[in-house]
Amino acid sequence: NILYEDEAVLVVWKPVGMESQAGRGFDADMVRELKRYLSRQKAVDNHNLSTKPVEPYVGVIHRLDKPVSGVMVYAKTKNAAASLSKQVAEGKMHKKYLAVLCGKPVDNNGTYVDYLKQDKKNNCSRIVDKSDPESKRAELEYKVLDCIQTEEKDPQYLSLVEIKLLTGRHHQIRVQFSGHGTPLYGDGKYGNNEKAVRKSLALCACHLKFKHPATGKIMDFQIKPDTGAFKLFSKSND
Q1: pLDDT in tens, 91-146
Q2: Taking CA 145 as the corner, what is the angle to CA 226 and CA 95, rounded to the nearest 5 degrees?
Q3: Which of 69, 180, 218, 228 is the most buried (most CB within 10 A)?
């Protein structure tokens, strides 16, 4: 789903289940799909489908895990990629997430500061002591937007939260909320609720804001997810 496109950037909605960068296997990934889209578009513009196509440039600026949906920006030129990557490095590209938690945080607004250690072999991270030489500081802010009780034989509380990452660590949101007793709904890796972990992961990068690399204009994109566990909160607000 293309949300915005010009000569420098592509802003897209990444669906659940697709890699945000080029994958090694044959499964679809965002880079491959965008290159295919741009190639088709160029062929139509040139009205010459027989000309050997030149592979278009698609620069990866930031990443989302495969089970996470959300708004992403890709660069169409190397200059745009350099400018956008600089914004990421300087903390000037702003992102917010929505998540559904199993349970309710103690405070409606809060900040979590933990130290995470990544286990690359098993593709996971965990909270460790600050003294661990391989630990990295992880910080996020959250705000509880809504809390509901599910209509089941064994009812549970679910919370809709808005999250702002202040650092970008491996599986940070999932690890920190699980470590603080409210794992994400649908999280089979870090969750502890047997019913919830069988569902799709309720985490979405819903808001992306950055400065256009060519014009300097502030680009602001927001999408409200309404599938999976997020659908429960849409009903509660009707």
Answers
A1: 899 999 999 999 999 999 999 999 999 998 998 999 999 999 999 999 999 999 99
A2: 70
A3: 69
